[in-house]
Amino acid sequence: MPEKVRLSITVNGVEHDVLVEPRTLLLDFLRDELDLKGAHAGCEHGVCAACTVLVDGEATRSCLMFVAQLDGAAVRTVESLAAADGTLHPIQQAFMQEHGLQCGFCTPGMLMAACELLEHTPMPEPDDVREALGGNICRCTGYQNIVNAVCAAGPLLAANVGTPTAPPAQGVSA
Amino acid sequence: MSSVEKPVRRPDRAALQDRRWVGRSIPRKEDPKLLTGRAAYVGDVSVPGLLDAAVLRSPYANARIRSIDTSRAKALPGVVAVLTGADAAEVIEPMTAFCAEPVPQHAIAIDRVRFPGEAVAAVAATSRYVAEDACALIDVDYEVLPAIVDPIAAMDAESPRVHDTLDGNVVFHRRVDFGDVDGDFARADHVVRRTARWHRMGAQPLETAGTIASFDPFSQSMTLWSNTNFYNFLPWTFANMLRVPSNRLRVVPCTVGGSFGSKHLTNKVIAIAGALSKATGRPVKFMEDRADNLAANDNVGPDRIYDAGLAVTGDGEFIALRLEIVDDYGAYFQFAHGQHGNALSQPTGPYRIGSLSYEISCVLTNKVQQGFFRGAGADPGNFILERLVDAAADELRLDRVEIRRRNFIRPEQFPYKIPTGNTYDSGNYEGVLDRALALADVDAWRGEQEKARAEGRYIGIGLASCQERSGYNATEWWFLYDKPPLPATSTPESVKIDVSAFGQIRVELGCPLWGNSPETVVSQVVAEEFGIDPGEVSVTYSDSTSGAISAGPGGSRLTVMLSGAVRGASRTIKDKMIRIAAHSMEADPADVKLVDGQVRPKGTPSKAMSMGDVAMLAHLFKETNPEGEDSGLVTTFTYDHPYASLPSDDRKDLGAFYPFVSHACHIPIVEVDVETGVVKVLKYYAVNDCGTLMNPKLVEGQIMGGIVQGIGAALMEEYRYDQEDGSLETGTFREYLLPSMHEAPEIVIEHQETPSPFSEFGVKGAGEGGRLVAPTAIASAIDDALKPLGVTVNELPMTPERVVAAIAEARASAAGDA
Hints:
heterodimer, A: alpha+beta, globular, B: alpha+beta, six-stranded mixed β-sheet, 28% helix
């Protein structure tokens, strides 16, 4: 067994000094070590993107990345979006309003990919959404309501205080 | 066939006209937990002392296991138990099967593997990583046998057998003639014949199947956390399989990340986790990974070869249908011929076809067995029927719209008994067709098509008019067997409603959250019944110790059945509240009503009591209540299927078993690239009639999702096996292709509402309709696009390779004719 790796990683604003096996996947680290269950294992070979989180602001498949690659990185997960008092993040509100989810298993990955898009493209058009989220598989919705939700999130974000990657007012992160 | 005389109930007109919450697109109550990562899917659950499991699978389709050496695996630090099939059989029974034939199946194979990916050993360890390491250290000595891949070859009497317990590989064969089929074919002016191939596809929900099993050796009890559905329908089958008393099994439902029919049982993961927990005395989690799921989860749908004929008069009137079907079931026969029982609910579709011959041969091969997948066997049934209808239109030179109009069951003919005995409750098919034609503006698309053809581009306009039977009863799993002559089941659904002393209502469901919206639906129904806001209703999930039977989602039944169950429970609670309130008001209960969350006496609104006032009396003050009234405000109501009848002994009449029949007309617009064979769906129109809409936005979500799954079925999704060695060629999502945003078109949906006379509020099912119609609608669109080339689609999915081959074949055939 190779030696464990010591590194520092910031997750949802909290810095963790950790000692991990080199083969530990980011997805398993988030779910098993930090108890953040929002990122999901759908395929574990990088196709479905249910495991998407933001790594230094970039939408990333956490099933294809080792924690050992992430010394000094900042990771954001779906748990960082809603406020502790139950206020949903505007992107989450948009998904609810547009019925952009059914079973919800792909949803955290969709939300995090949408965060990255909205950071760069505050008022996306449907084609922008298809380009940015085209690699995220949903088996339930047929996608139309997801596209509508991400488009609707633009105006909602503009009307709210906050940015795509920061929680709404009085929010706290994990 | 004639109309039937048995309308069991007429719609409650008042409820339809004055409804406040039924029919409104309120937001989903399920959403916040799903949006925030707090849903508690089974993979998110942990318990103290939990071990993780992994499974070693056979690389071979067909092989004898000479020996298994687990010693190196057991020696690995962190490994707690390694079980072979023989080890597991010490602690659990074979897997539950619903077939009458001797096709035993073990969750971990014993002595022989029969499909690629069949489990040969399972490991429990301190982490999944270690468990998988241990799998790599298990040494299996296989004697590889020739793979039985082709179902037609497998039917040969000389073929090697998948199971030595059977005489051959045709595990079930039956032909049933409903009505005078031979006579009808003899008097037909035309017989339209088609062969068709519907390939093997899988449900592939994004969440795989998983279970935590925790065995308590002291009480001989077992607790499961699982994403199975049948924990309140058939929990005793799990208990039997796990060899624990049925009164000592507790199954805790977890939020389910999609199912599409594939998680009714999930027996394999339950058995493996259960056996490992018994072996270790610790809780064990077995969560399939995607490779496990693709290779070995029982979520594969039909795999059928059709030889079909439609008898037609000179006027284009359909009179009889003949279907001969070979269905490749794979290596086992878990749900018997249930997928054909399902198809027999609507084989003649929306048409007046007087007789039917249905012949099936269920064949076993070295592939993973069939389970249920959205459509459940009626999906290829719609495909072959609509192919025949389009072929009839072509051969008789009739317009494809006109031929459908001539043959639709007319609105005044309902309830309508089809040849098999199933009864359709209500419908207005021509109304749906007309709205779809208007919605799609077909004339405008014909103009586009013409322009495109002038540019050498091939645009096609599809059309399909199909049924979506809903509200199943499980009798379909066995009614084609004569023995044992089991009666009909009512396949019930139960809910518990309790009202707290403060008058606040909670509903406890017996079904899981499977990706649909049971919390929203029951909140709407409770709000309707009590005149309160749906947001005030709390909804929770019972575990399997509720003791009340619930079959849960499946067969597009849940909204129909929950409406009945919640309404029934609400009536009991309301009646009691009215009796108690009337007694307190010194009024006649007949003059007291529960409206807007208040109990009001007629004429004196000032004496109204709040629900809290009445509930407090019910909870605490028995002596002030009417004599004989027991304390509390709680009831469990079991809603049995409201319209099921017995099959006849000779099976010439299967009874009414799927009576809530929704209908849809789909018009997809596609463009076919004749060079690459890629079919792109440009736009998609659908008009749907599922009776009274409970929540239009959520119904549309179901339809859109189903349509995109149907696009997958029509163009992409297929389990492929090597024809020589039988290995699975589609073992990851890189080969088994699911539709993405890039394949999903803009979808436009409208509704017609023809209420069911047999269900509460007139609702019918809507969960499967999209996928039941879209594949055959896309096939029709491809035909229309490639009409100048003479291509007709007889096979799905039409992958680019198949499209190119079909075009080449049509061109060669045209050149040969010239």
